[in-house]
Structure formats: C-alpha cells, structure tokens
Specification:
The chain is α/β, with parallel strands linked by helices. About 35% of the residues lie in helices and about 10% in strands. It has helices at about 5-25, 55-65, 130-145, 155-160, 170-175, 195-205, 210-220, 235-249; strands at about 45-50, 65-70, 70, 75-80, 85, 100-105, 105, 115-120, 150-155. The chain is globular and about 60 Å long. The structure holds zinc ion.
Amino acid sequence: MSHPVLRVTFILLFAIVMAGCATGLPRNPLADWQPSPNHEPRRARAIVLHHTAMDSAEGALHTLQTENSGGPVSAHYLIGDDGRVYQLVSEQQRAWHAGGSRWAGISDLNSWSIGIELDNDGAEPFSEAQIRSLLVLLEDITGRLGIQRHMVLAHGDVAPTKKDDPSALFPWQRLADAGFGLWQREHLSAPPAGFDPWLAMRLLGYDLRDRSAALAAFHRRYRGRDERTWLPGDDAILYDLQQQMLQMQ
Ligand SMILES: [Zn+2]
C-alpha cells in the first residue's frame, strides 16, 4: 500500500464506495435489508406530448434545464423542428412536464409517463422532420419500455382545464397510421340507442370534472378544432373509439 499508485487507487476506490453509500438506494433502517434479485426500475405507462410554445429549440432547452415563470420544468425529450432529438432526463426518473394532471382516473402523470416536448410555437404546423423523429422515438420507447401504443396522450388530454398542447395542428391521424394513439376508423357506424357519449369519454380516459374543457381537448385531438360543445358526428367517433378500447381489454 506504500506504493503511490496503489495508494491513489485505494483512495479512489474508497471514495467511489463511500459515494455509493451516500447516494445509493436508501434502505429503511426500520427493516432488515433482505434483498431480492427480482425487481426492475419502475416503468412509465404513457407518453405525454407537448409543444414548447417557444421560438427555438435552444430557448426551450434552456427553459427545460432551468425554469419557466411557474418554476422548474423539464421533459425527458425535446425534438427540434429540424428533427434533432435531445434527451434531458433519464427515462427512469420523474420529469416535471405534466403538472396537475389526470387520465383514466389516475392523477399525477409525471409519475407514470415519459414527456416529449416538440419545438413549436403553438401556431405553426409541425415539421415533417420533427414528426419523423417523433415516430422513430415512439417506436423505440414503446418497444423498450413496454408502453401500450395507444397510450400516447396530449398534455391537453390530461390537463384539459389548464393546457391546450399540442395544438389542433398536431397530426394525430398520422401517428395513428403508424400505430400510436387512437383514431377513428374510416367507416363509422351510428351508435345504438342509449349510447352515452360522456361514458365513452370517461372510458377513453378523460377527466370530466370540467366537461366543456374535456370536450375542447377531445375536439382538438380528433376534430382539429377547440370547440367546447358537442359537434355533429361526435357520437359516431366516440362510439368507434369506445369499440376500439373495448376490443383491447
Ligand atoms: Zn405541455
């Protein structure tokens, strides 16, 4: 141990071990630690898409590494309008992108989703390069993490009273053509007598505590507009989406 190289090596190893103790997984002192090998990192169950409402990916990167007017924010990924993909937070960690949110009766989407920000000012179309990169990323994430492909949601879906991103210009049909998210099938049939469109909304996952906000989110996604009251044709779309959901059960 007197050799200088050995001594330095020992000190480094000691430092690494101590750092591991300091930052390692906490073990509850109230219990005996009897580790089991049968575990894995907790996995996300959904993917939440956003637009940044900013002018550049550089500006968005800065905000997602610091804070916005409401406090610190982040997302797992940011996709520039040139198609470049940035990762800011490990998929195993909880990023701060969804805020107060609820889907299918479960709140706090941050705890069970991957957040993807799209560099878009909220008024412009989404670029081809960006959508191509998004589709590649969705294929990758859903495959590796075992997230069901229909669980690709809009921020506006899960926080309908507070958020409206991504905008009505987002190409949900294109995503559905690639197998992500839900979309109405080409030939819709009239719903049977007694069909309840609100029940269908609830089955899809919408939080109905503010029904007009939920309707705006539904229309933004499936009709490309932000209407807050029922539109002709909504019943047939919801009946079709309900049938698709029931067939997945
Ligand atoms: Zn958002």
